[in-house]
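for the writeup, i need someone to sanity check this before i put it in the appendix. the sequnce is what the collaborator sent (i think, or maybe the updated version? ugh). structure was predicted straight from it, no edits. if anything looks off just tell me and ill rerun, i have time this weekend
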Amino acid sequence: MTDPALAIEVRDLGVRFRRNRRGRRSIKDLFSDSTRRSAPNEFWALREVSFAVKPGESIGVVGRNGQGKSTLLKLVAGVLLPDEGRVTVHGGVAPLIEITGGFVGDLTVRENVRLTAGLHGMSRAEVARRFDGIIEFAEIENFVDMPYKHLSNGMKVRLAFSVVSQLDEPVLLVDEVLAVGDKAFREKCYKRIDELLTEGRTLFFVSHNEKDLRRFCTRGLYLDKGRLALDAPLAEVLDRYNADYNAG
């Protein structure tokens, strides 16, 4: 049974990947009990991860590179499916992960906003109502009829953040997106996230920037070797993570 009073429930979560294409399992193997055992060329990116998030909580996810942080966000977003356990999200998500994915290079900025916002669940009326605000926030008013592929990388990131941050979904997933862009635009992003948190959104935030984590988050999840090493107040999690990092 799931608890509708929670925003996110994660129970015994596990996902594995192949290191290479050798030794691929057959279709028969996919339905056998042996699939719980890893083949030699597979590894578990996450294993036996469990936690629950209440609506309005701000969660900072920390850990070294390759410990499963981004994989966890993709599972919460529904981009990946687990091999073990389950993820339940009560309400939709606004995913700021792999942020420029889904945009089409040959379409114009205008067409991409309509397409991407629509794929995220905005109605045509909502897109029309919010279009000017999206473009203004992204600071690309003079480029709306230019093919998307001709935008600079910074402009693409600004546009993607602007679209996703306009979604009304209750859960916001952020994966290192604030590390991209100039200082002025990052501050705009900070203020926008502050506004969303004031509205009672639930935040899942992956970052290596301790200052950003302390700004937005009150609780932390520390992932180490694909497992949940600590779930505690953010300050305690950062102390543990920094101690482990300094110890080598």
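The first strand starts at residue 8 and ends at 18. The longest helix spans residues 183-198.
thx in advance!!
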